[in-house]
Amino acid sequence: MYTIDLTLKFTPIPVSVQRKEAADAEALYQKITSAMKASNPELIELTCEKQTEKKVALLSDQISAVIVSEKDSAAAAGRVPGFFTLSES
Fold it and tell me: How many CB atoms lie within 10 A of CB 84?
């Protein structure tokens, strides 16, 4: 399962959707980054393959970051995807 996290401007909590296949996650990543590069804001409507009832629509000019990560069974519970994690033991 692949998670696509979108960080929105002025919003501390990311918006996340999941894709089952790596190719689908990459295609969605490309779609979002293309919309972010566009000069005019676009409405992006997303659904989740894990929670099929989950839907979200947002404007591309409000996205500040996109992260694609693979959820594997070895990942610690509660671990958020990203580039750096600081934990105290």
Answer: 4
Q: Phi, psi at residue 45, to the nearest 5°?
A: -110, 125
Phi, psi of 62 (to 5 degrees): -95, -5
Would strands 63-70 and 15-19 be described as parallel, antiparallel, or unpaired? unpaired
Q: What is the pLDDT of residues 1-54, one digit of tens each?
A: 999 999 999 988 899 999 999 999 999 999 999 999 999 999 999 999 988 899
Strand locations in the chain (E): 2-8, 15-19, 43-47, 55-59, 63-70
47 DSSP β-pair partners: 55
Backbone angles phi, psi at 57, to 5 degrees: -130, 135
pTM for this model (two decimals): 0.76
| Other residues' Cβ atoms within 10 Å of the Cβ of residue 3 | 19
